[in-house]
Amino acid sequence: MLARVIGAGVAGLCAAYALARAGAQVELVERQATPGQGCSRFAGGMIAPWCELESAEPLVAELGQEALAFWTADVPVATVAGTLVVAAPREGAELFDFARRTDHFERLGGAGVARLEPDLADRFDAALYFTQEAHLDPRAAMKALADRLAEMPNVVRHYGAEAQALATSPDWTVDCRGFAARDALARLRGVKGEMLILRSDEISLSRPIRMLHPRRPVYVVPRGEGVFMVGATMIENEERARVTARSVVELVNSAFAIHPAFAEAELVETGSDVRPAYPDNLPRLTQRGKTIYINGLYRHGFLLAPALARRAAEVVLRGAYFPEVMDADSGERASA
């Protein structure tokens, strides 16, 4: 069986890997010259299923737990150091609400925060520590996955190519084009995300820090060697590449609230892209004939892609069906 996977972001790479490991002949097609150039490139890389319960449906956490095993065992690029959620003393209600909505955490006082992150000593007197969560560098993760595919004899890669220009006729097509698939998935909408990469030798963090705030929440993810990713913006528009001055100021100010050293950090990079989402912000597997679409991962790409890819492979190779998540009205099949 020949399965053609279109798109080499995190969803497409995971889909190609799941199919190839299950024994299919795989043709991976990406219009860019190198994989991982879409919105996956600008992700936070937090494998945080229980933190996401704060605003996401339980399905996201259920599927996301599979990503912990995938990114630590199958493709071991993630670091399991947990997630630390903090808030300024005057925002204690935010921390209380976060705890009420989430699960799998320990409550810490100021001494516990200092023990985990010495550079945050005396800055926060309460926190939630999600001990089992992990984080990764999205670009390194996609490179590792692409390198795995390059070593598999049943995978042919076409980078810098269009699927319709290929001479082969696949038995199945797995469409992982993200927001570009709106030509086929009319209910998709774009949610713009912006991020900064900062470098500072004055602060060391071992795990992602989420700072709660009613208007300007932020997360800081360490990438090693004094480099940090700062993100949190979610803007309901479909403008891809422009990062606004307002967003830069707000992200830096929020990072400064975690630690003042971020105000003097080097601004290494800014980035933005549009993440594909359905109206309910839940992912879908949509089957139409011999084409299956993996889409709607919203801001949970690295968290959801492994589970969705595995299920898509089961549809393609074994005719699997997931009635508990079927969208009967639209004919779209949701993730299982």
Task: Walk me through what this model shows.
- The protein is an alpha/beta fold.
- The protein has helices spanning 10-21, 58-74, 92-101, 110-116, 138-150, 245-258, 301-318; strands spanning 2-6, 25-30, 46-47, 79-80, 83-87, 106-109, 126-130, 134-135, 155-159, 172-175, 189-199, 209-212, 218-224, 227-231, 266-277, 284-288, 291-295, 326-327, 332-333.
- Strands 6-7-5-12-13-14-11-15 form an 8-stranded mixed beta sheet, sandwiched between helices. The protein has a 6-stranded mixed beta sheet with strand order 9-2-1-10-17-16, with helices on one face. Strands 3-8-4 form a 3-stranded antiparallel beta sheet.
- The two termini are 23 Å apart.
Quick recap:
This protein is an alpha/beta fold. The protein contains seven helices and 19 strands.
What topology does this entry show?
Elements: E1 2-6, H1 10-21, E2 25-30, E3 46-47, H2 58-74, E4 79-80, E5 83-87, H3 92-101, E6 106-109, H4 110-116, E7 126-130, E8 134-135, H5 138-150, E9 155-159, E10 172-175, E11 189-199, E12 209-212, E13 218-224, E14 227-231, H6 245-258, E15 266-277, E16 284-288, E17 291-295, H7 301-318, E18 326-327, E19 332-333
Parallel strand pairs: 1-2, 1-10, 2-9, 5-12, 10-17
Antiparallel strand pairs: 3-8, 4-8, 5-7, 6-7, 11-14, 11-15, 12-13, 13-14, 16-17, 18-19
Helix pairs in contact: 1-5, 1-7, 2-7
